[in-house]
Amino acid sequence: MSTDSQIVVIVGGAVAGSEAVYQFTERGIRCIVVEQNDLSYGKIEDGLPKWHVKQRKKEMELIDARIGHELVDFVPNTQIGRNLAMEELLALGCSAVLMANGAWKDRPFPVKEIERYEGGEFYYQNPFVYWYNHNEQSSYTGEQIEVKDNVLVVGGGLASIDVVKILQVELVSQVLKGRGIEIGTIDLEHKGIPKTLEEFNLTWDDLELEGAYLLYRRNVRNMPLASFPPDATPERQQKIRDTRVKILKKAQDKYLFRFKGQTQPVGIIEEEGKLVGLRMIDNDVINNKAVSKDGTEHDVYGSMVISSIGSIPEPIEGIPMEWNTYDIKDQETGEVKGLHNVFGVGNAITGKGNIRVSRNHAREVAAYVADKRLPENGVDVGAVREKVYSLQEKAGYDGNYPAWVDANARD
Q1: pTM of the full predicted structure?
Q2: Confidence class of residue 1 from pLDDT cuts 50, 70 and 90?
């Protein structure tokens, strides 16, 4: 099979997409990367908190190196389902399609009524972290979020730890600024709150704050802060559960947020047209599952609620769904049911916001597609690229990737 007659399209160019690109280009196979944003950094830029300075820089440089490869045709500012229909994407005539478009939609909050307060006293995690990462940039035109004391965060994964950390460093930075002490949130995150306060002869009690409150439906040992390997023995699983306890304690010691496990929201508390808290119920944990305990309903008041219960892929017309995720035949191959040679890779399939897991899944699926699923007789690469040139022109992209990155670089 000649690689000269093969061309694949990859939707999304961040961690999973760029890894897929690498697998194909290393085999001499041309790629088209269709990216919804101007740059292909995805959640490295928008979902990974900005205090991960070195990691963000390293990942962005790796993405640029792969997307800027001579065998890659880049199409920015083109969202599938909005700027380009799935039907039109398939009509390009490529050898295969890989959906590496990530999980940008927050999982719906279990109490639907809360959504009428969205953008006020209620936020989902993705827009909240996006605000934190971008609000100080001169090009930012989105909404501004006022961080207050006593915010309730519902969730239990590593992303929810990031959310409470953002709340705590923002809050402490504000209070210190009011006392004439200027310190940025990145410095606060690196040093931790107790050490920072100690430098100014202050304690947490001196700030007169309650702090953020993390609420999780199961117990600490069941928090997805560290994952089980597929072949983990019972002994190994126990060690990982112990590690989860240590991870949470370390985060609490460093950022001083509150935590309560085995509780979940069943309603909202409203006063004078505002959301002021959540009606909660306590749980037992039976066989690692949360089981509500009748008669344990209670009210927890807060200034704001942030939902951090996971992300799911955006529904796209033309891609079959099973509940909140794409309908696939097999997670290992990522093959989408009902569509010929269409595969999902990374967070769009794994349902995890983990960089390593996303990259590994993309590597395995892309290698499988490259080695076993491309059409034997190939496709008309020239005809496909002519259609791509038209898409690039519509997006305002002239084909010079390094110049495009420089022109669209953030502050």
Answers
A1: 0.93
A2: low
